[in-house]
């Protein structure tokens, strides 16, 4: 095996990214404190070519050096919007036909491995604050909750790690196999 150089990977430009078809998924960040987590979500969103990111409440917005440090420019490729209230983002996404899902530990939540996307449906996943999670009033507005099973002593994972797992789990369901075309 030979490790590929960046020039051998055939990556698209930011302009080509903007013109490309996106996966019908929006990530909503509900009061995420860490600018590094925000940047990481942008970078992962770019990797999976999702439609966009909604930054809500105290969640920081680009341009910001700490976001850029982990986003590595993905804040320029991925579409994003800001809402002072997460509830407003949820209402707007619902009006555009998105199925709204909180990523949270809730009574009756669907385990990630049991969640299956429906062809032709658009999804928005809400990820919460690093300490408090998704606000209860936002959970109440959702069509459902998905949860990542955990088996250790901790009851949560880093929000950017969770975002990556959820994005990949959803996007992978639409691929003919587990490999992305280069």
Question: What does this entry look like structurally?
Answer:
There is one protein chain. The chain has one domain: 3-Layer(aba) Sandwich (Alpha/beta knot). Helix content is 32%, strand content 21%. The chain has helices at 14-19, 35-47, 65-71, 74-77, 86-95, 136-139, 159-172; strands at 23-30, 50-56, 80-83, 98-103, 110-111, 122-128, 144-147. Helix 2 (35-47) packs parallel to helix 7. The longest helix is centred in the last third of the chain and has 14 residues, at 159-172. It is globular. The relative contact order is 0.19. Residues 178-182 have low confidence and may be disordered.
Concise description?
The chain is an alpha/beta fold and 182 residues long.
List strands and helices in order, with pairings.
Blueprint: H1 14-19, E1 23-30, H2 35-47, E2 50-56, H3 65-71, H4 74-77, E3 80-83, H5 86-95, E4 98-103, E5 110-111, E6 122-128, H6 136-139, E7 144-147, H7 159-172
Parallel strand pairs: 1-2, 1-6, 2-3, 4-6, 4-7, 5-7
Helix pairs in contact: 2-3, 2-7
